[in-house]
Structures are given as structure tokens and as C-alpha cells.
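Same chain as my last thread, 65 residues:
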Amino acid sequence: MALRQQGVGDGVQELRIHYGPGYRLYFFRQGAMIIVLLAGGTKASRQRDVLLAKRLTKQWRSDYA
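reply #2:
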């Protein structure tokens, strides 16, 4: 199983898991060690999932940063 990480904008990272339908996890880093998992999905739902992850990142930073 191969993994690939890339930025999708606004500080959000996408971890692609090359298995099955093409799973993706979206996250951002807060500080040196905290990683906040935002959303997950498949290749088919990528566009919607990225928008959700960006919205949640903005909300998190507004509330906690």
C-alpha cells in the first residue's frame, strides 16, 4: 500500500492511500506536534472533501489559534 502527501491549499494536507477506491485523509498541523484530522473520503468525493477540510481548518483556527 503506497501513501502520498500533498498540500491542497490553505494549510490543508491530503494523505492519499493507494488502495481500493483511492482513500484520502485531510489534516493540518497546529503547533509542532498536534495534527488535526478534518475529513476523509475517496477519489470520487475529493472536491467536496477538500472544501470541507478547508472550511473546518478556517473555523478551527478562528476558534483556537
